C-alpha cells in the first residue's frame, strides 16, 4: 500500500511539471509550467483527496521543485523572485478547493477532477476565445471579467508576471483596450494568501461533509 501511495502522489506531482521539459523554448518553459499548474492544481487536489491530508505533499513538492524561481533562476522568469511565493500560495489555494470538493465525495473524486479541469480550461480560455476570429467580440468589460475569473490570471499575476501583456492574452483578449478602471492585475500579497485561505476553508468544509456522510 505504501508503494502504491508513493507512486500515486508522484504521478500527481509529476503531471504538474510535465510541461516544463516539453517546451521547445527554454525561456518560456517557466511561464508555460505556471499556466499548466494553474489548470492542474484543482483537479490534482480532487484526486489527492482520495489519500487524505497526506495528499497535500503534492503542492508542497511543486513549491520545492520550483524554488529556483524564487531566486530568479528559472528560464523565462528572470526578475521574479519573492513574488513567486505568492503565486505558490495561489496554487495551494486552487489545490485546496479541489481537495475539499473531492473529499466531500471521495467515490466521485475522479469525476470531480474531470469537471474541475474542464471548468479551469474554459475559464482560462474564455478571455482569448473572443479574438480567435481576428476581431474580438468581447467588450472590454466582459474581457476584464473573464480575466478576473481565469485561474491562470490569478496564479501568474500573483507571481508577479504581467499576464495581460502575454502574447496569449494581449491580442486575442483585447487587453490593450481594457482600461485600468475596468481591471487591475491581482496583487500577489493579497491574492495569494486570500486564495490559500479559501482553499483551506473549502478543504475544511469537504472534511465536514465527509464526516457527516460517514456518520
Walk me through what this model shows:
α6 packs parallel to α11 and α9 packs across α11 (188-214). The chain contains 11 helices and no strands. By secondary structure, it is an all-alpha fold. 69% of the residues lie in helices and 0% in strands. It has helices spanning 2-17, 19-22, 26-48, 57-65, 67-70, 83-104, 109-129, 140-149, 151-158, 167-170, 188-214. The protein has one domain.
Can you count the beta strands? 0
Number of domains: 1
Give the uncertain stretches in residue-range form.
none
Rg to the nearest angstrom? 17 Å
- Helicity, in percent? 55-70%
Q: Would you kindly provide a brief summary of this structure?
A:
The chain is mainly alpha-helical and 215 residues long. It contains 11 helices and no strands. It is globular, with a radius of gyration of 17 Å.
Structure characteristics:
11 helices, mainly alpha, 215 residues, 0% strand
Write the layout of secondary structure elements.
Elements: H1 2-17, H2 19-22, H3 26-48, H4 57-65, H5 67-70, H6 83-104, H7 109-129, H8 140-149, H9 151-158, H10 167-170, H11 188-214
Helix pairs in contact: 1-3, 1-4, 3-6, 3-7, 3-9, 4-6, 6-7, 6-9, 6-11, 7-8, 9-11
